[in-house]
């Protein structure tokens, strides 16, 4: 929290105390996390506005493509 307070003090309004966190702001993080763990794909599905359940974002397509075939 101290680091966020410093960022706000430097003019970054995104870190204003009391501002509710927007879960959609975490979408990019979870898009990359699904490269390492398939379970994050469900979170990407929930956060994105895509109707495609299997591949809700391009990163989902890339994550699936990099997986070894068994």
In percent, how helical is the residue content? 40-55%
Radius of gyration: 16 Å
Task: Output the number of helix runs.
Answer: 4
Listing every helix as H and every strand as E from the N terminus to the C terminus, the arrangement reads: HHHH
Overview of the molecule:
Helix content is 46%, strand content 0%. It has 70 residues and is mostly helical. The protein has a domain at 23-70. Helix 2 (27-33) runs antiparallel to helix 3 (40-47). The chain is elongated, with a radius of gyration of 16 Å. It starts with a helix and ends with a helix.
Using brief descriptors, characterize the structure shown.
0% strand, 70 residues, mainly alpha
In short:
This protein is mainly alpha-helical.
How is the secondary structure organized here?
Layout: H1 2-9, H2 27-33, H3 40-47, H4 58-66
Helix pairs in contact: 2-3
